[in-house]
Fold this sequence. Notes:
The structure is a homodimer of 190-residue chains.
Chain A: H1 19-24, H2 28-35, H3 43-52, H4 64-74, H5 84-104, E1 111-112, H6 114-123, H7 130-140, E2 146-147, H8 148-167, E3 175-179, H9 180-188
Antiparallel strand pairs in A: 1-2
Amino acid sequence: MNFQGYGAPAAVGYGSGFPGQQQQDPLYGYFAAVAGHDGQISAEELQTCLTQANFSGGYRPFNLETCRLMISMLDRDMSCSMGFNEFKELWAVLSGWKQHFMSIDRDMSGTVDSQEMNLAVSSMGYRLSPQTMSCIIKRFSSNGKISFDDYVACCVKLRSLTDLFSKRNQVQQGMAAFQYDDFIQCTMSI
Amino acid sequence: MNFQGYGAPAAVGYGSGFPGQQQQDPLYGYFAAVAGHDGQISAEELQTCLTQANFSGGYRPFNLETCRLMISMLDRDMSCSMGFNEFKELWAVLSGWKQHFMSIDRDMSGTVDSQEMNLAVSSMGYRLSPQTMSCIIKRFSSNGKISFDDYVACCVKLRSLTDLFSKRNQVQQGMAAFQYDDFIQCTMSI
């Protein structure tokens, strides 16, 4: 899955302390226009921006829930919004995912069906039972079809939940134990 | 939390086998108009219907994700859509939640803030740490405010996740153990 760098600290020398370097970046003008005077992108602003860039296809509004989810995943400073470095990282990740999605969507319909989604999830290295895959597909599809924004929400959640599970499965026995408060905190924020 | 009957089988004699009785119900005409010729309401149709009924306030579109979540919670026949009985049950539940929400929203702003949300969650009987409450509020708010549709999504998820946890915590030691596939199936479908 092309989400390298997620959860890692921002790369050293990435320009965060050098506004001049940021402003030379071709993406910066776009970021600044969307972010407005506070220099930060909220979930609503991210939705506007991804809709305008037509990430969802057909100029449909990009799913706001997916935007909140992505900001929550990348929000290292707990600001509930996104600075330029986080935005740039997200843009690269989303572009990678869009390419992956288009390669799965063989009939170029703009959506993937359950068979294509099964293949995509397996190719990311997840080993899930047919029942679990069926639940996931049911949850993220409309009329049996999964759009790009729902595909992204699915990938982000699957990755985050797998990470949460792995951290509590240190002895590698395939089981993870949660206390109630920990369980609610982990699962409600995703 | 006013979500009685959720998860329970449909009440006996509820009229499901008696179209005449259903049609006498004042809500039936509305349901039939929204459901169209298939007699079932999809998440998109539910969104249209709850937006028109102004559940979200200010005639903003009701959050589609919350609609999917509610259908998923009530979908006993795994059809991904909702028949009249499920719709009627949901309508009653939502009306109860709307009243609860309005009683929390003391300044009548149409949204609740973090302090009001903390009180609401405690009054439902949940005992969560300040960190967990802070994560939840962050996840479901926009600019620190929680709208009715996000409040509903939060209540539905919290209830479902607590139920899932309780089922795996039979010995009541405050811990629940999950296998990976089970964990993913439970948490991805909510």
